[in-house]
Design a protein that fits this description.
It is a single chain. The protein is α+β, with helices and mostly antiparallel strands and 96 residues long. The chain is 20% helix and 39% strand. A five-stranded antiparallel beta sheet has the order 1-2-3-4-5. A hairpin with a 5-residue loop joins strand 1 and strand 2. The longest helix is centred in the C-terminal third of the chain and has 14 residues. The protein is globular, with a radius of gyration of 14 Å. The N terminus is likely disordered.
Amino acid sequence: MANEELLNEEEISILSLTDEEGNEVEFELIDSVDYEGAEYLILLPPEEEAAEVVILEVEPHADGTESYLTVDNEEVLNAVFAIFKERFADFFTFEE
């Protein structure tokens, strides 16, 4: 998916996820990154002026469904975020 398409208002995808306390939380899907054989989603809270993205690993299941896992590995998080930053350097201002 092209970066411009991801940022086009008509193309915005909202993911509704359940947090640890059972609450539904909506996120805006900004990008999908493949890294070392796994897929990662880059998400933003849609209603807020978000300063941080959420990165989740996609875990596909045999029945065609998926789970979204928290990424605890700092090296993987940094690598996936670096790919995202490179792709969207013209659309977002990133703080170092």
